[in-house]
């Protein structure tokens, strides 16, 4: 019992979550992002979405979720696609296989990493915000 407490205490004091923590909606940090008209480094196939930070398997994970399409009726069901934003090439490719079309076409993994890296950095700054934070455009 003392060993478990000794291991868990630094995590609790640092505000960190354990390996099996399931985040609540209040813990997710969000920031709307959109492509500027002349932006050439936009890595996504859609022009608007949400940058999100959430705990998963004991670490902070940065994700991008698409916005509801403008032409979609309010009563139509919509499940936004999401992708993990990371500089780990394996996780960036294999971890996003289900929604890889949410990324724009890229020549190779190195090109995709180059496009995604600034959004990973921005997402990590979002992760440093208090739980439940919703950050406006350009605040990070």
Q: Can you describe this structure in just a few lines?
A:
This protein has 3 helices and 4 strands, in the order H-E-E-E-E-H-H. By secondary structure, the protein is α+β, with helices and mostly antiparallel strands. The radius of gyration is 17 Å and the shape is globular.
Q: Helix and strand layout, with pairings?
A:
Layout: H1 2-13, E1 29-34, E2 48-56, E3 59-66, E4 82-85, H2 89-94, H3 109-127
Antiparallel strand pairs: 1-2, 2-3, 3-4
Estimate what percentage of residues fall within beta strands: 15-25%
- Would you report the number of β strands? 4
Q: Using only CA atoms, what is the Rg?
A: 17 Å
Report the average pLDDT across residues.
81
Q: What is the share of helical residues?
A: 25-40%
Shape call: globular
Alpha-beta content class = alpha+beta
> What topology, given as strand order, has the largest sheet?
1-2-3-4
Q: Provide the succession of SSEs.
A: HEEEEHH
* Major sheet characteristics: 4 strands, antiparallel
By DSSP (H or I, 4+ residues per run), the number of helices equals: 3
Question: What would your notes on this structure say?
Answer:
The protein is of the alpha+beta class. It has helices at 2-13, 89-94, 109-127; strands at residues 29-34, 48-56, 59-66, 82-85. The protein has a 4-stranded antiparallel sheet, covered by helices on one side. The chain is globular and about 35 Å long.
